[in-house]
Amino acid sequence: MNTPTIDLARYSGRFSSLKFAAPAPGILDLVIANARRANAATESMHRDLALVWREIDVDDSVRAVVVRGEGANFSSGGDFDMIEHMIADEATLIRVWKEASDLVYNLINCSKPVVSAIRGSAVGAGLAIALLADVSIAAEDALILDGHTRLGVAAGDHAVIIWPLLCGLAKARYHLLTNKPLSGKEAERIGLVALCVPDAEVAPTALDVARTLAAGSATAVRWTKHALNNWLRLAGPSFDTSLNLKPRNSKASDVREGVAAARGKRPANFEHPGD
Fold this sequence. Notes:
Layout: H1 8-12, E1 18-24, E2 27-32, H2 43-57, E3 64-69, H3 80-88, H4 90-109, E4 114-118, E5 121-123, H5 124-132, E6 135-139, E7 143-145, H6 159-167, H7 169-178, E8 182-183, H8 184-189, E9 195-197, H9 202-215, H10 218-228, H11 230-234, H12 236-248, H13 253-264
Parallel strand pairs: 2-3, 3-4, 4-6, 5-7, 6-9
Antiparallel strand pairs: 1-2, 7-8
Helix pairs in contact: 2-4, 3-4, 3-13, 4-5, 4-12, 6-7
């Protein structure tokens, strides 16, 4: 199999908030890189994570992708500075809302198989990538949390399109409404992730799976992915509804209180009708 060399400059030049490597022929290593803040997605990173899948889709040198976080965590979700900027500025709110849609649909429609290597925290927008990957591999002690309702925001990044399909509606309701976290081991038990392994084995296992995918028939793998992802496309209207509800309350006092509570590491004191 003659696989062209991946041009890493093609990616690093356009998506500067991310890091890229080619650990094996045909395999692109995509790294969410903001380790000082547990790989929280800044505004520029949120944009890059939405658009990079289009570039991967048309790159003939890429046969499979491994996506992981830099250091000990996958991603702690959207950066609080970005969230506060969305609250304060309507143009930012609209742009990030559009990017959230693009992130989900561009990843679903990317023809190349994607393997996620989930270590440490995987929250919010980062969790969207982790769970929408074609094969998700989590550490036993990974912490998986949607995170939206604790900030006073409707769960709208990815949860409605993928959680019920992976783990069933009852478990999806429980974890998304109560905001209860899951370990990697529990996530595998309920079907939310494909595999669960000890922390030290996450990266090598993900690379092994990517090697298998890259060595297979490109057309067979890609069209199987396309067909399977029709289940997600069927759920597209439900996802669009959840995403549209998200900015409707992004200027509410609940969001300000949710962010303040998260920054202060304290319970949120949300207002209730009639208070």
